[in-house]
TrEMBL record:
The keyword Oxidoreductase applies. It comes from Vreelandella azerica. This is Isocitrate dehydrogenase. It holds the Pfam family Iso_dh. InterPro entries: IsoCit/isopropylmalate_DH_CS, IsoPropMal-DH-like_dom.
Amino acid sequence: MSQSIAVIKGDGIGPEIMEATLRVLDALDCGLDYHFIDAGLSALENHGTLIPKESLETIERFGIALKGPLTTPIGKGFSSINVQMRRHFDLYANVRPAVSFPGTRSRYDDIDMITVRENTEGAYLSDGQEFIDDGNTGISVIKVTRKGSERIVRYAFELAKNNGRKKVTAVHKANIIKTSSGLFLDVAREVAKEYPEIEFQEMIVDNACMQLVMNPHQFDVVVTTNLFGDILSDLCAGLVGGLGLAPGANIGESAAIFEAVHGSAPDIAGKKLANPCALLLAAAQMLDHLGMVEKGTAIRQGIRTVLETRRDMVTPDMGGTGNTDTFADALVELFNA
């Protein structure tokens, strides 16, 4: 039985890495039926909007989307496409694994951690942002709710429980931001009591940044609010070699969108130099979500094998002499062997 998914090719390098990723998924015989939808700059040109209603309806119908990087034009009147989709589908959990792979420029080995970021409230809400005093003062409201805090913390603990993880660290700034961050921490403490088998740690965000740089192996699952999660998840990507190895899942009750979290890199678009690993790893997250865990694991192990044994097929950003297509070729050959 096939599974229908919505596919957004993306802007810039998006179509190249998406083509490579879909070839790998086909080689694994995942039984996926792709429905390509418009979003980003092409949608703006064709429909006058960055994310057409028809595209949103397709994602809603299937409940699953695989997304390449999108470009939000800089300037007034354009809000982030990612933020729009997260709010539209209430994709409250942003899940970002950071795992070490061989042959990267990472300073650490054996990193294996996950950042779980609240995705729909906090500092990124457009409500409550305004300029006053003739534009000389900017005001931004940080809104954190008990409901939002409870469901993201519970998601982190359930993820840890279901994946054999031993520790959850709640990152906050409750010592200074006693209302919004304080509420998040209070709720985290309450939820943690329901999972006595999992170690619970709380850490102030500035200390967490320092500890991640000095001793990242102490972390397992990190759960935090929207702004802190955005920053910390990129820091964690840096621990394993950069955003080229950084996938992301945006999970809600009725929909999930899986993506490469890096940008669209228009400067190298069309040159076949783009590293497809982040989108491949996002596809592996998607397969896990769909219950095809063995196939998701196969993609991760396949990437590891190619990085170790086929340097001639690896993209230049990872020290190889290959390109986007040859990386996919190497994986397809591996799965068809």
